[in-house]
DNA sequence: TGCCAGGCCCTCTTTAGGGCCTT
């Protein structure tokens, strides 16, 4: 594992490709038996969506009505969906060794670990969080829910929220918007995945100073 | 509608509490 603490390390850590993903699930906790019911993902390559992945998953149990109301996904839709092992294997091949991004990644990471471990896949280590990065780049947003940020930043809006591919696509648009914002504010030519991921781990009060240091601008700027 | 879990993060803090975010 490589610790990223210095500007020099970011200069040599450049991922032109990331996979932005989102899970719809039966509930909040894989530790309490909740399962993934839909995976949506898009592959960003050099700032554009180069590929996408979407599949429902039959969890083998009826959905809580709350989840059907929230997502629009019904038991009937899942009855003919493939089982988790097949979809997770396909998703693992889609991801391969590409760094991952999700909105509030701590939630999706728990399900990713649970499902990948269930079927013996190696768990990806590099997962960036668009919510943590957005809290530092857009501290004045009304809040940092995905839908709020999409509206606040006037990003392209999918037909609906709480479907995996739609949410993944909007998260990808947010990720790209944050890259553009850092290029504009700090003069970066490119924003590596590792920089945005690391930014989300910096205390908010130190985020601007951290970015100025990376940009080689030690003096405060507005 | 709000709870469920759990990591993050702020404050009236750090031997803690509670809001934010995800389904």
In the CATH hierarchy, what is the class? Alpha Beta
Order of helices and strands: HEEEHHHEHEHHHHH
Q: What name goes with the CATH superfamily? A: Ribonuclease H-like superfamily/Ribonuclease H
The share of residues in extended strands comes to: 15-25%
Task: Please describe the structure with a list of short key phrases separated by commas or semicolons.
alpha/beta, 5 strands, Nucleotidyltransferase, domain 5, DNA-binding, globular, 10 helices, 222 residues
Description of the molecule:
The protein has 222 residues and is of the alpha/beta class. The protein has one domain (15-215): 2-Layer Sandwich (Nucleotidyltransferase, domain 5). The chain has 10 helices and 5 strands, in the order αβββαααβαβααααα. It has helices at residues 7-11, 65-71, 75-79, 84-95, 105-118, 130-137, 146-152, 164-186, 193-199, 204-215, and strands at 17-25, 36-45, 48-56, 100-102, 127-129. The chain has a 5-stranded mixed β-sheet, sandwiched between helices. α5 links the parallel β4 and β5 (127-129). The longest helix is centred in the last third of the chain and has 23 residues, at 164-186. It binds one DNA strand of 23 nucleotides through residues 22-32, 34, 37, 64, 66-67, 70-71, 102-111, 129, 131-132, 135, 143-146, 162, 200-201, 203-204.
Summarize the structure.
With 222 residues, the protein is α/β, with parallel strands linked by helices. It contains ten helices and five strands; from the N terminus they run H-E-E-E-H-H-H-E-H-E-H-H-H-H-H.
In terms of topology, how is this protein built?
Layout: H1 7-11, E1 17-25, E2 36-45, E3 48-56, H2 65-71, H3 75-79, H4 84-95, E4 100-102, H5 105-118, E5 127-129, H6 130-137, H7 146-152, H8 164-186, H9 193-199, H10 204-215
Parallel strand pairs: 1-4, 4-5
Antiparallel strand pairs: 1-2, 2-3
Helix pairs in contact: 6-8, 6-9
The structure holds one DNA strand of 23 nucleotides.
């Amino acid at each position: 594992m490589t610790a990223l603490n210095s500007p020099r390390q970011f200069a040599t850590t450049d991922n032109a490709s990331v996979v932005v993903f989102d899970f719809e699930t039966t509930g909040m906790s894989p530790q309490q038996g909740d399962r993934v019911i839909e995976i949506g993902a898009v592959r960003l390559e050099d700032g554009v969506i180069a590929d996408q992945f979407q599949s429902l998953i039959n969890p083998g149990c009826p959905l809580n009505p709350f989840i059907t109301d929230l997502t629009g996904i019904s038991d009937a839709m899942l009855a003919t969906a493939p089982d988790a092992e097949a979809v997770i294997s396909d998703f693992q091949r889609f991801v391969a060794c590409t760094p991952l991004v999700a909105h509030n990644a701590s939630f999706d990471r728990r399900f990713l670990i649970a499902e990948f471990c269930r079927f013996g896949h190696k768990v990806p280590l590099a997962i960036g969080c668009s919510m943590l990065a957005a809290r530092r780049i857009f501290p004045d947003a009304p809040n940092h829910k995905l839908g709020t940020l999409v509206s606040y930043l006037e990003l392209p809006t999918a037909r609906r929220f709480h479907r995996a591919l739609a949410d993944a696509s909007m998260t990808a648009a947010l990720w790209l918007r944050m890259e553009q914002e850092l290029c504009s504010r700090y003069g970066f030519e490119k924003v590596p995945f590792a920089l945005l991921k690391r930014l989300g781990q910096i205390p908010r009060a130190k985020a601007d100073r951290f970015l100025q240091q990376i940009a080689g601008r030690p003096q405060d700027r507005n």
